Amino acid sequence: MRTFVYSALLALGLAASASAAAITPVLITIDENGNGTIQFSTAPANPLPGVMQADPGPGGLASALTYNLQGPPGLIAGDVFMSEPGVDALSDIIRFNPAGTGNTDYAASLVFYSDNGDGVDALADTGFPTSLYTNRVTIPEVGPEGANGAVYTPNSDQPGYVPGFLVTYAITSDSEVPEPASISLIALAGGVLLAGKRWMKRA
Question: Per-residue pLDDT tens for 53-87?
Fold first, then answer.
């Protein structure tokens, strides 16, 4: 059932990308344990590992699960709140810090914060930052506890948006990861080399 939900949501991304031919599609997958990938167009996904490092965003913790987004220019800053299925409770915060946050050497990054109320059992289970960006969006998780997540494609003013790219984030909140077959349902068009160069060189 969960695979079907992910497949349906990712297929919606396909329709959106078809209507935005001049925009390069990008799929980024992340989970609470530092496992991530980045995929430009229909090329194979490349590893995007998460590391524990200081978050220079508002109220950021000294050690938080951080994914280096490999230099996208113009990344929109902000926090994405993920709410638990069936209840109105915050379970995760996905933070987007643009390049240069805190210092000129900081790379544009995604920071994954998760509630640690049940004890620390994943890298992201550090609790939440002590303050937040004013730019915020709330999205629901899909699936039962222990096997849930969300698919998020930001609009131009929302956290995580990158000008010139249609970026979709597939976020696994708990232990399971969306199956590769589900992820591949996004038929992302265009050339991976051109997309990657545009992503890293637009500054």
Answer: 999 999 999 999 999 998 888 999 999 999 877 67
Q: Give me the domain span that covers residue 169.
A: 2-201
Tokens at 134, concatenated: 């004013």
Sign of CA dihedral 89, 174, 82, 151: negative
**Can you tell me the distance from the alpha carbon of 29 to that of 151, in angstroms, rounded to the nearest whole number?**
9
Q: What total of structural domains would you count in the chain?
A: 1
Query: Is there a contact between 82 and 93 (Cβ–Cβ < 8 Å)?
Result: yes
Alpha-carbon distance of 130 to 184, in angstroms, equals 37
What region does 74 belong to: left with phi over 0, alpha with psi -120 to 50, or beta? left
pTM of structure:
0.79
